[in-house]
Structure formats: C-alpha cells, structure tokens
Amino acid sequence: MKRLWELDAARGLMLVLMTITHVPSRLTDPVGQPFGFVSAAEGFVLMSAFVSGLVYGRIGYTRGVDTMRSGFWQRALKIYFSQAALLLFVFTVIVALGLKLDQPAVKEMIKYYLANPHEGLLFSLLLVYQPAFLDILPMYILFMLMSPWVIAFAMRHGWSWPIAVSATLWAMSQFGTTHWMYEVTSTALHIPVPYDETGSFDTFSWQFLWFFGMWMGASRSAPDAQPFVFPRWVLGAAVAIAVACFAWRHFGPTGQAPFGDDAGLNLLFDKWHLGPLRLLNLAALGIVAIRFGPPLLARLPRPRWLEDMGSASLPVFCAHLVAVFVVVSLTGGGYAALPYGADLLILGAVFVVLYAVARAVLRWEAGRGVAGKRPIARAGGAQAH
C-alpha cells in the first residue's frame, strides 16, 4: 500500500502555519487564519482524523476490529506519553526559566500550576488541567480512545447514526452544554480545576470535526468505496464562499474578527466552539481542496520538506510547542521590542530545528523498519461533477 504524500505535505503545511502563529513574531497576526476564518488547527485535526480513519479503517476491514482497536490504543498511549513529557518540561524547565527572568507571560500561561503545584501536576497528568498550548493532545487522546468503537459500529450499521449523534453534540455545545456538563461532573467528583483551565477547545464541538474526518477516511477503506462527487452547484457555492471569506479576512476592515467588536456575531465564526459559519467556511475550503488540489499539486514540485514534517507530525508538533515555550520564556512574547528581522531569525532557527527533528525521526523509523509498517492506502479518489 502506498502513502499519500499529498496528505503528509498538507499536514506539514499546517504545522508550519501553526508554528508561525504560535511563535510570537510580526508574522503571527498576518498569517493567522490565512485562508479565511479558518485556522491551521482545523485543517490539522481534520486531516489527522481522515488519515486515522483511512489507516485504521483499512485495518478493521482487512485484519479485524480487535487489531484496529489495539492500533488506536497504542497510538493514544504514544500521544499520552508525549503530552506527559511536554507537561514535565513546562513544569520544570519553563517554570524555572520564566521565574528567573520574571516573565509575566509565562506566569499567566501556567498560573494555576504556580498557585496549586500538586493539584496542577496531578490533574494535568489526568488530562483535566490543560495549560496554554497543551490542550490539543488531550483532545486527540480522547478521540483516539473513542474512535475504534465508532468505526466498529459504522462498519456494521453505517455512518448515519454516528454522524447524526456527533452533529447533535456539536449543536448542543453551541449553547454551553460542555461547560455545564463539566461543572456538574467536577462538582460530583470534587475536581478543583476551574473550567477555564481545562483548555480552550470545546470537546463537544471539536469531536464533530474529528468524526466527520474519520468518516471521510474510513469510507475510503470500505470495499464499495466511491469517489467523492460534488454537483456543480455545490462546487460553485464552495468557491464563492471560500473566495468571499478569504477577501473578508484579508481585505476587510476588521481583520481576524469578522464582525469587529460585536461579540455575539463573532460567535458564529468562533474557533473554540467551531461556530456554524466557521464550519461553513471550512467545508467550502475542503470541497475546493478536494476538487482542485490534486491537479494543482501534479503541476508543482513535490515539497519534500513539508512531506517530511507531515510524516513525523507528532514529534514535530511537540518540538514546535517546546520552541514556543522557550521563545516566550526568553522574550516574554514581546517580539515588537526586538529589532526588525530578529523575529524572522528566531522563526528561521525554529524551523531548522523542526526539520532536523523530522529528519531524525524518519531516519530512526527507517532504521527500525517502522516507516514500512505505517502505509496509507489510496482508496477511492476525489471527483467533482
């Protein structure tokens, strides 16, 4: 089976965009939400879910549900250890560095841990307390643990019910259901961590993006998989929405806030709760990418460096977080005080490190024969009518 290098390159691109957004520099705002009112996080989660569905769905169909479930759990355990290593790095190195340099930005990022170190450590390892930037991997772990049950159900009964339930949970999350459920649960279990220290991503909202991507990938592995086909009117509407949102984002008067200071209307594009208009923008971009991406990539040079970074996405993602914490600890996030070009040198150094991590991981995996054990099958194409 053949890896889809296009997906690896796309994930590599999302990692590049996330790094530029997270490492404080003069490029942070211009590159944030570069394709409209959609960030790299949505693209990264959606593609990760697609790849997971594609790989583990094929395993489920060819080697059985038990093998598929074991694969998901092993991946979840690997992500958990990555999260634990990042937490320990932050609670030791970054705390010491931030306190020594008296950086308010660092203190704000981990204020709950500084006030409650024992509870902070315990509940962070239980994935309840999630400091700034360390809130996406716990979400991945939860979704990975849930995914084999969902795929196994879908293999027997189809995807209609899983997607319907997922969409219902997303709709409920738009009205504060996740917050309410956490308050009820934390009170019953005597969990001291306040809700605003449990991460920015609303789990009930983002699970819809994950399981929709999972369906897209797993459906490619089904024995009767058919290409994605979009009617002309759908394709036309998607192009119009994508172009309009891109122009609104980059040439409108309000920048990254679509409705300026109107907090109520901005919720329609809210990132953390995946507002409905944000999902519409993302869907439009997805349709455009599926239809026009392959022929465009066929005419461009193959971006090997992006492909390498996407192939080693978990280590590179973790390395980019380490870089973010180190830069914030040293500069306090005050890139504007640096000379022009200094922030670009910092970003350049970060990318050199990230690519070195990617190459080192790929060489290590090649030496162990791992690369050949994680293929991605090309199952079903994309087509628009």
State the main characteristics.
385 residues; mainly alpha; two-stranded parallel ribbon; 70% helix
Verbal overview:
It is a single chain. This protein is mainly α and 385 residues long. It has one domain (5-384). Helix content is 70%, strand content 2%. It is built from 17 helices and two strands. Strands 1-2 form a two-stranded parallel ribbon. Helix 1 packs across helix 15 (304-311) and helix 16 (313-331) runs antiparallel to helix 17 (342-368). The longest helix is centred in the N-terminal third of the chain and has 36 residues, at 65-100. The two termini are 28 Å apart. 41% of the residues are buried.
Secondary structure topology:
Layout: H1 5-22, H2 28-31, H3 40-63, H4 65-100, H5 104-109, H6 111-115, H7 117-125, H8 137-157, H9 160-173, H10 177-189, H11 203-221, E1 228-230, H12 232-251, H13 263-266, H14 276-298, H15 304-311, H16 313-331, H17 342-368, E2 382-384
Parallel strand pairs: 1-2
Helix pairs in contact: 1-3, 1-15, 1-16, 3-4, 3-8, 3-11, 4-8, 4-16, 8-11, 9-11, 12-14, 15-17, 16-17
Total strand count, please?
Answer: 2
State the oligomer.
single chain
Proportion of strand residues:
under 5%
The averaged pLDDT comes out at: 90
Main sheet: strands, sense, barrel: 2 strands, parallel
SSE order:
HHHHHHHHHHHEHHHHHHE
* Cα distance spanning the termini: 28 Å
Strand order of the largest sheet: 1-2
> How many structural units, i.e. domains?
1
User: What structural class do helix, strand and pairing data support?
Assistant: mainly alpha
- The shape, in one word, is globular
**Radius of gyration, Cα only, in angstroms?**
21 Å
Which consecutive residue ranges, at least 5 long each, have pLDDT under 50? 372-385
> Could you estimate the helical fraction of the residues in percent?
over 70%
Count every helix, treating DSSP H or I runs of 4 or more residues as helices: 17
